[in-house]
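BUG: 3D viewer hangs when loading the predicted structure for this chain

Environment: internal workstation, default settings.
Expected: structure renders.
Actual: progress bar stalls at 90%.

Input used:
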Amino acid sequence: MENIAIQAAKYATIFLFILYTFRCFGQLTNKNAQGKRKSLAILQRIDIFGIHFLGYAALYFCYEDQKYLFYYGVQVIFFLLFFICYRLFYPKAPSLIVNNMAMCLVIGFIFVMRLDSAKGFKQMVIGMGSFFVCLLIPRFIDKFRYLKKLEIYFAGLGLLLLILVCIIGTVSFGAKLSFTIFGISVQPSEFVKILYVFYLAAALERAESFRELFLVSVVAAAHVILLVASTDLGAALLFFVVYLVMIYGATRNRIYVLLGLFLGAIAGWSAYQLFSHVRTRVIAWMDPFSVIDNAGYQVAQSLFAIGTGGWFGLGLGKGNPTSIPVVVQDFIFSAICEEYGAFFGMALLMVLLSSFYIFINVAMRMKHMFYRLIALGLGTLYLSQIFLSVGGNLKFIPSTGVTLPFVSYGGSSLLATFLIFNIIIGLYLHLENEGQVIEKESRKTVFEEEYETFEEES
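Structure tokens produced before the viewer hung:
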């Protein structure tokens, strides 16, 4: 009976999630049909609560522990508040972004809770706290017009935090990633990447000469060098990719990109020669089964999990994803594919990409270069993080230890992702308000022209 319930919940979850995914792209393709988009958004929220219920029902049937019912009840209240708050504070916010945040949180809460209930509880608390901390960020972004004058503070604070990591950071899996404040582990690079985007946007917006671009590049290189010094090479790669995309977006000069790629190739070769754990990850990527007893174990188990899950998965709690080391952080996509199947995994990627579409759409519509570069930089950061995380799980690229936004376990990562999405919502609101002002001004101008014409004729 238990197995029948879990399998039924699995198929219902896959069906609802595929429906949700189609509705994502239905919202994107019905740009001018406001009523249609609202209907799709409401249906998506029904899908979210349905998947949430089915996930926790499966957990309860699998483990028969009352705590899952309690966690489910608390999270239902949270998601109701989540939608109500965004509706009250930001009625013009893009519903697709809000829904995708909630959906990815639901998937993350379910799977982290399934893999490690203690970490699942922490993830739930941090997720709720992050939501309330970031709730006013869109209003701040929309109203505060002097952010581009703070470039030196963005760079200074970011570099200071990275220096602190180099000095007092705790070594984890061969890299200095975090330090502890009042008993709470903080990974500064998750927040520095946002400061870094704001610095580059402000500096590139005003840079007009080669000398100014060179100085911007020196500061950007300082960020990357400090990350390399702390052997956080996954974050260093993220910072480097963001720099290349943003400098091209600001200058449209391909030579800078080609030069950056050349220097990046040299840096990658140097990292392979200098750091043993980089060589270990490359060997594990090239042929994990030849070193399955040592370096290749993690990647091999990830591939076994994805292959075992097939198209429809084994059912929540019926797989063995905990055999993958650091599964809740680095390899949660493999765990999802094992228990919910490849169809669910592909649909998850499409949902994540639909959010990226909104990011880029905001960037393309922005008139001010500073805001455009922020949206472009955050979009690149978000997409690169998805590519590095999922690519490492699938053995498409070497594993970098980068988390999957909203889904993987990690307090700093979760808070930083909330910040990124709320900044984009703020930029979207700024864009909408700016459009209304322009529309009012154009109407006033037409009226004035008609009045002047009437006076001349009189």
